């Protein structure tokens, strides 16, 4: 069945307002019941001492082991990487059930007025983006679409926290038929 | 997302790099392959075309630079990105000199690698379009422009290719629109005469006297209006190839003149007294049944024998329906460039109409039908209505040969239509699981349109 959970798996305390913002955005964008959860464990094994970052792929495996139904989006404040890239904002299993997004690179210089709101907005966009991948959505050429590739903060800021009409149509089709994601 | 999926091959001895890079690129909608070493990469290139190769510099066996050198030798159109963990100026210079598109240091900055891949994809699309336009302009055709996988056609092409290297006369038999001139041009391009002119004459288009002066030329004053001496096509084609199209339509007198020219290898201009030697390779073509014309006394037997040195027959489209999807792809790409319209493909229903049509006008008719469809279409996919063809019962050929994939695609489309697009129900009928069915729907570009019917789409 189509349902989603947002898990706070960061080192610091999760900001309830920030997390609820993501939850509400996902629930509305994907029309699925969505809740926020605070698991006790953390994906310690994802830490890579050599890179000084957390492996997003290992976080996905960790999430997958703990998820039996629906989709889970892990939210963290850890800086994420995949082996071939210097960093990633997030990662998702294409057509799978798990995704992760980090706030680590979504903030600008701290202390600026309005910074919290900017981070929250960016986080919602990336959350929609990664969860979109779990529904099989690929990158979109429309700059303003949440499924547009984000390789930089500039890219993130150029998009809206919503799917473009083409991706939305595809999502509606996929979600009505596919339902349960792959194992 | 991009209109067409680009084929990218990731070559790295580290599994984690192959996995992470292909997983990342896959989300752009590209088709990704991996190879664990240089040899496997070269092997992969032999089997299928790859547009972009991301190659690690340091690998056991053949290293990245050697892969680059070998690939550039055989597949110069492939763009190669060299990846390395440690950049040294020396190797970077070497890689660029060997023709690498770029040189990037692992781990990549996401923005940098996205931009590079995007740049390559855009550049390759431009190159492809250029080639098509240049060909259309210069009418430079080669054997691979005769798109086919039909065994009979492949045999014809193989024979023509071998014959191309000889000076022998070639006779091409085939219905209108099967590509007789295309084959003649391909033979010329493959022959030792390819640097010299290719001259085509349509024998049916001109009256007897006009054709005569057209072929042999005339002297000043040969007839009213002959104000200056003019060379004929036999002369213009000097050193090259003379293509005599619709040879079956020429008059008995011209048949006799032509026979003499072919026997003597000399030409006399109309109104002239002196003959001079010619150096041309003759390729003749006709859509008539020439042996029958000979039998019935309409075509000189001796001329037929002169022309029929190497005979080739182009197979009509209705006898090689398996080529239709392939031809549609090629023609859509050509027409898209020429008409400056982006077309993604043909809807399943429209393809069924194309497969069933009897194609009396062969490939030329198919090209015209697609051109019309592109002009009148409003969406990115051509629909059955755009084609303007009506499916007549006599056109339907039961059990015509198509590929297994085509049958699978049509069957899935039919079942989806039957279930009004219900994947679960369709999967049950097809006796496969939903995930597999969904993968196939994506593979064949089927998707549900507004009305609950399935039609083809690609991209999203």
Brief summary of the model shown:
The complex is a heterodimer of chains A (183) and B (460). By secondary structure, chain A is an alpha/beta fold.
**Tell me, what is the CATH class of chain A?**
Alpha Beta
The appropriate CATH architecture of the largest domain in chain B is 3-Layer(aba) Sandwich
How would you name the CATH homologous superfamily of chain A?
Collagenase (Catalytic Domain)
**Domain count of chain B:** 4
Q: How far apart lie the N and C ends of chain B?
A: 6 Å
CATH architecture annotation name of chain A: 3-Layer(aba) Sandwich
* Count of discrete alpha- or pi-helical segments spanning 4 or more residues of chain B: 19
Strand order of the largest sheet of chain A: 2-1-5-8-7
Sheet/helix structural class of chain B = alpha/beta
Portion in strands of chain A: 15-25%
Strand count, sense and closure of the main sheet of chain B? 5 strands, parallel
Query: How does the major sheet of chain A shape up?
Result: 5 strands, mixed
Order of helices and strands of chain A: EHEEEHEEEEHHH
Number of strands of chain A: 8
Catalogue the unreliable spans of chain B.
Answer: 393-399, 449-460
* Overall geometry of chain B: globular
Mean pLDDT of chain A equals 90
């Amino acid at each position: 069945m189509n349902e989603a959970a947002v898990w706070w798996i960061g080192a610091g305390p999760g900001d309830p307002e920030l997390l609820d913002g993501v939850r509400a955005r996902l629930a509305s964008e994907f029309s699925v019941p969505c809740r926020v959860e605070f698991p006790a464990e953390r994906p310690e094994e994802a830490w890579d001492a050599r890179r000084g970052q957390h492996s997003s792929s290992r976080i996905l495996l960790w999430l997958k082991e703990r998820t039996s139904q629906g989709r889970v989006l892990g939210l963290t404040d850890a800086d994420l990487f995949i082996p071939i890239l210097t960093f990633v904002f997030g990662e998702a299993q294409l057509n799978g059930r798990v995704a992760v997004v980090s706030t680590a690179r979504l903030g600008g210089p701290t202390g600026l007025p309005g910074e919290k709101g900017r981070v929250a907005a960016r986080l919602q966009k990336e959350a929609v983006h990664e969860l979109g991948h779990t529904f099989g959505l690929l990158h979109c050429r429309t700059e303003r679409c949440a499924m547009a590739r984000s390789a930089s903060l500039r890219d993130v800021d150029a998009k809206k926290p919503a799917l473009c009409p083409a991706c939305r149509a595809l999502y509606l089709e996929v979600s009505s038929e596919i339902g349960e994601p792959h194992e | 997302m991009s209109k067409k999926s680009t084929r990218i091959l990731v070559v790295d001895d580290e599994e984690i790099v192959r996995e992470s890079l292909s997983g990342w690129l896959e989300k752009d909608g590209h088709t990704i392959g991996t190879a664990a070493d240089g040899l496997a990469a070269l092997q992969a290139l032999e089997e299928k075309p790859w547009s972009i190769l991301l190659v690690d510099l340091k690998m056991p066996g053949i290293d990245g630079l050697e892969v680059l050198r070998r690939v550039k030798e055989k597949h110069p159109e492939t763009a190669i990105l060299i990846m390395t963990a440690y950049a040294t100026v020396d190797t970077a210079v070497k890689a660029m000199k060997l023709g690498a598109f770029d040189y990037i240091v692992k781990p990549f900055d996401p923005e940098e690698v996205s931009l590079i891949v995007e740049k390559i994809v855009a550049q390759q699309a431009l190159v492809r379009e250029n080639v098509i336009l240049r060909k259309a302009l210069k009418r430079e055709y080669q054997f691979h422009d005769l798109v086919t996988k039909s065994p009979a056609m492949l045999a014809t092409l193989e024979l023509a290719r071998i014959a191309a290297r000889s000076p022998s006369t070639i006779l091409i038999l085939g219905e209108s629109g099967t590509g007789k001139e295309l084959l003649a041009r391909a033979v010329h391009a493959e022959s030792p005469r390819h640097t010299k002119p290719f001259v085509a004459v349509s024998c049916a288009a001109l009256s007897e006297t006009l054709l005569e002066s057209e072929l042999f030329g005339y002297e000043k004053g040969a007839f009213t209006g002959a104000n200056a001496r003019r060379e004929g096509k036999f002369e213009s084609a000097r050193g090259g190839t003379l293509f005599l199209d619709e040879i079956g339509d020429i008059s008995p007198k011209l048949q006799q003149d032509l026979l003499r020219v072919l026997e003597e290898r000399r030409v006399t201009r109309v109104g002239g007294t002196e003959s001079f030697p010619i150096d041309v390779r003759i390729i003749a073509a006709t859509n008539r049944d020439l042996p029958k014309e000979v039998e019935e006394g309409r075509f000189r037997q001796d001329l037929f024998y002169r022309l029929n040195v190497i005979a080739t027959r182009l197979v009509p489209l209705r006898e090689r329906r398996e080529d239709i999807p392939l031809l549609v792809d090629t023609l859509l790409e050509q027409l898209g460039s020429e008409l400056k319209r982006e077309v993604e493909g043909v809807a399943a229903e429209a393809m069924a109409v194309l497969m069933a049509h009897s194609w009396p006008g062969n490939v030329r008719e198919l090209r015209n039908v697609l051109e019309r469809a592109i002009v009148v279409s409003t969406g990115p996919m051509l629909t059955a209505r755009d084609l303007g063809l009506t499916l007549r019962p006599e056109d339907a050929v039961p059990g015509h040969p198509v590929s297994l994939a085509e049958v699978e695609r049509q069957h899935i489309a039919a079942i989806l239509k039957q279930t009004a697009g219900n994947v679960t129900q369709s999967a049950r009928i097809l006796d496969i699981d939903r995930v597999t069915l969904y993968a196939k729907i994506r593979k064949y570009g089927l998707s549900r349109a507004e009305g609950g019917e399935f039609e083809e789409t690609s991209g999203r």
